[in-house]
Design goal:
mainly alpha
């Protein structure tokens, strides 16, 4: 097994597929170092209001406004990097379910979700770009 195959196997073991590598080669990777300030602010606002406003109309209104923005951001991350698809959807489902469990609903799940998605995408992007730069075709 040569270096190319070994590195490719390492990436695949981390959940990074060949379609992500080919997309990076053909299109290039978007600048993933930019932190999603607006989306993270919406998530923090939503989480704070959820904690303060236990069963109120304000919390429901904020959820109606913030959740589509959060969903679109997370879905966009999945479209850009298919290797994150399963990871993001599992955590979105977990965050949604945790919102309905007493005591667990006090944890800022959506803020954590946005931050971890950004962090995970950045890590995957760096690994993919290192691979593409090491083995140009």
């Amino acid at each position: 097994m040569n270096d190319y195959d070994t590195e490719l196997a390492n990436l695949e073991a981390e959940g990074i597929g060949e379609e992500d590598i080919e997309a990076a080669r053909n299109v290039g990777m978007e600048n993933s170092d930019k932190f999603p300030v607006i989306v993270f602010s919406a998530a923090v606002t939503k989480d704070i209001i959820d904690i303060i406003d236990i069963v109120g109309i304000v919390g429901a209104i904020i959820n109606i406004l913030a959740l589509p923005l959060l969903y679109l951001y997370l879905r966009g991350q999945v479209k850009q990097m298919r290797s994150l698809k399963k990871w993001v959807y599992k955590r979105m489902l977990g965050s949604g379910v945790a919102e309905f469990v007493p005591i667990l609903n006090m944890v800022p799940w959506w803020s954590i979700m946005v931050y971890r998605t950004w962090q995970k995408k950045r890590q995957h992007s760096e690994k993919i770009m290192d691979f593409v730069e090491s083995f140009p075709k």
